Amino acid sequence: MKGEVRPPVTGPDGTGKTSLMRILKESSTPNGGRLTPTGGSGTCARSGHPGPPARRAGRSRARPQLAVDPFAQPGIRPDAGSSAVHRS
Asked: Counting beta carbons within 10 angstroms of the beta carbon of residue 86, is it exposed (0 to 12), middle (13 to 18) or buried (19 or more)?
């Protein structure tokens, strides 16, 4: 049974879309179509709508902070800052 189910899941066309569709259908049916049980921490396909926006917001906020903190130090250029850190 497993051997027969795996070929269609991977996608006969090789696109892999069938696997996503099956995961969406299987995950949505037992969960009752609710996205709360998934927690949104899973892949975008499993989390559904609440997943992508939450992840996008977190990533967009984290990226600028990390890039601004080390690189945009007060009056210190990225090159100078890195060289100063290495020298000290």
From this structure: exposed
For the chain of 88 residues, list the mean pLDDT of each consecutive stretch of 10.
53 54 54 47 49 51 52 58 55
Looking at the structure of the chain, the number of domains it has is 2
- Name the pTM for this structure: 0.14
- Please, are residues 49 and 55 in contact by the beta-carbon 8 Å criterion? no
Whole domain around residue 81: which residue ranges?
50-88
